[in-house]
Specification:
By secondary structure, this protein is mainly alpha-helical. The protein has helices spanning about 50-55, 75-100, 100-105, 110-125. It is extended.
Length: about 190
């Protein structure tokens, strides 16, 4: 389904079974367990082994997750960890969506949008709104307006590396190997 988004990337397809797959113990709630939940409004529920072959309707949700952490020695472990966490989040979220069906089943789209707005507002009140920690500006200031001493190095606004930091091109590189920069002799 995602042919255009990631043609050249190696992919692993991961199927999630909301009834049978294990979730971290700290997130388990019997009221959200599809093996025990039965909807009062729809009659759906109590998903047993093989439920995908016997229950109707079935919903499929496709997610494309790409993780790149290109730090030598940590790349594989960090990428695997992130994929596991994303999988757990999706599994728990879909279990909750199923178990909460009686709360959202009869909602109109306007009611859904109002619920989203109220939830966002409640979340912002609970954790607060955080302004961006980093701001990027393309405005160059004259050196006379800098607050640092004139001997302090300035940070260029360009993304191009200075000429003296050249990447050696004379040997092939592994994809996961860090780039090596050559500094001029003093």
């Amino acid at each position: 389904i995602f042919d255009k988004e990631a043609k050249d990337l190696e992919r692993e397809v991961c199927f999630i079974d909301i009834a049978s797959d294990e979730i971290p113990e700290r997130y388990y709630k019997e009221s959200e367990d599809p093996k025990y939940f039965k909807s009062q409004k729809t009659g759906r529920g109590q998903l047993k082994e093989g439920w995908r072959e016997t229950h109707q309707p079935i919903m499929c949700s496709y997610k494309l997750v790409t993780v790149k952490f290109e730090v030598w020695g940590l790349q594989t472990r960090v990428e695997q960890f992130v994929h596991k966490v994303v999988r757990d989040i999706l599994l728990i979220g879909h279990r909750q969506a199923f178990a909460w069906v009686d709360e959202w089943y009869d909602m109109t789209m306007d009611e859904v949008r109002e619920f989203e707005r109220a939830t966002q507002e409640a979340t912002n009140k609970k954790i607060g709104i955080f302004p961006p920690a980093i701001s990027i500006s393309n405005i160059s200031m004259p050196s006379s307006t800098r607050s640092a001493p004139s001997s302090a190095p300035s940070t260029p606004l360009s993304t191009d590396a200075p000429e003296f930091l050249t990447v050696p091109k004379d040997r092939p590189r592994k994809k996961s190997a860090p780039e090596t920069l050559t500094l001029p002799d003093p």
